[in-house]
Structures are given as structure tokens and as C-alpha cells.
Write a structure and sequence with these properties.
Blueprint (H helix, E strand, L loop, with lengths): L1 H14 L3 H4 L4 H10 L7 E5 L7 H8 L4 E6 L2 H9 L7 E4 L12 E7 L8 H10 L1 E11 L3 H7 L12 H10 L2 E9 L2 E8 L2
Parallel strand pairs: 1-2, 1-4, 2-3, 4-5
Antiparallel strand pairs: 5-7, 6-7
Length: 199
């Protein structure tokens, strides 16, 4: 697992400085995915694997000044890029691993996770840890601005049946981890899974 964390850090550290410029048109997709969470003013939300913090402005707008917005990432260079972009004004940034979140049980109303699932070292265990910090009935959004087929094409890879993000694979993993899938969308222009924290 340490090797996996190191690989993730190395991969994203090298890309952090130019990350936002590679995907300049993703803002509306992030905002739409945040909107689907149905956050209310005063809610507490975590963007896990927040990267450069692209979701933080939309999350702050959704929960308002009274709400709590946290952004956590494993890669210091990504958090540095978030600060340079001024997104630390929208939420507190934490250097943290999804496998060991520095939060109390049931502290959050929701978790937003863009592009995270495929980078988890132990998906079932890590999703269980994410469930730990969400209140019963709270929501998890697993998001990517493009769907699985479009993403595979972008990387020049075939779409395979063993992809964890495929509905038949993801739904049972989420269920074992304390989540119940509420909706699943895998389209050319977005991937968005909403899951509810079981009681």
C-alpha cells in the first residue's frame, strides 16, 4: 500500500503545475456534479482527492459561509497548486490519505470525490473509511467530467469489464463499504455515482 501511495504522489506531483490548464473547460461539469449532491447551507462536506481544488468554489457556494468545506489530498504538490489558484479561500486544505482520514466519526454530511476510485489502494476498505466520517443518510458523489469510455479513449486504452467504476463492479463494493447506490450515470460527458451512507 505504501508503494501505491508513493506512485500516486509521484504521478500527480509531476502533473500538478499544469493540471488546471490541461482541463480548462471542466468547471461547469464540476458545478453540476456538486449541485447533484443537494447540499444545504451549513452542511459539512469533504472533497477527497481534491487535487487543485477545482470543486471547492462550487462546494463553498452550496454550503454557504456557515458551512464547512474541506479539501484533502495525498499529494503536497496538488495542494500547493490549489493554494496558488486561491482555492484555499473556499475550504481548509488537508494533506491526508483516504485510508486514514483525520476526522471524527459521522462528522460530514457529504463527500465529493473526483477521479478518486481508480487510485484507491484498497477500494473496499478505503470507501469504508470514507463512510466512517459521513453521517447516516449522508451522500457520496463519485465523479469524473467524462465517462469511462471517453476516458479510456483519451488514454488510448480499451474499456475492460474489470473496471472498478463499472456499475456491476462498483455497486457491490460500495454496499460492502456502507454505501447504497442511489443513481449511476456513465455518459460521454460525465461519470457520476451518488451513494447514500447506510445507517
Amino acid at each position: 500500500m505504501a508503494d501505491t501511495r508513493r506512485q500516486v504522489q509521484e504521478f500527480f506531483s509531476a502533473r500538478a503545475p499544469g493540471w488546471d490548464s490541461r482541463f480548462p473547460g471542466d468547471g461547469p461539469a464540476f458545478a453540476a456534479a456538486v449541485s447533484a449532491l443537494g447540499l444545504r447551507p451549513g452542511d459539512a462536506v469533504l472533497d477527497i482527492g481534491c487535487g487543485t481544488g477545482r470543486a471547492l468554489p462550487a462546494l463553498r457556494a452550496a454550503v454557504g459561509a456557515r458551512g464547512t468545506v474541506l479539501g484533502a489530498d495525498l499529494t503536497p504538490a496538488m495542494l500547493d497548486a490549489a493554494v496558488r489558484a486561491g482555492r484555499d479561500s473556499d475550504g481548509a486544505l488537508l494533506l491526508a490519505d483516504a485510508a486514514r482520514l483525520p476526522l471524527r466519526d459521522a462528522a460530514l454530511d457529504a463527500v465529493f470525490a473526483a477521479g478518486l476510485v481508480s487510485h484507491l489502494a484498497r477500494p473496499a476498505e478505503d470507501l469504508c473509511e470514507i463512510a466512517r466520517v459521513v453521517r447516516p443518510g449522508g451522500l457520496l458523489a463519485l465523479f469524473h467530467p467524462i465517462g469511462r469510455a471517453a476516458l479510456a479513449a483519451r488514454h488510448g486504452r480499451p474499456l475492460t469489464d474489470d473496471d472498478l467504476r463499472a456499475e456491476p463492479n462498483l455497486t457491490p463494493v460500495l454496499a460492502r463499504s456502507g454505501w447504497r447506490v442511489r443513481s449511476y450515470a456513465d455518459e460521454d460527458d460525465r461519470y457520476l455515482v451518488l451513494a447514500v451512507r447506510d445507517s
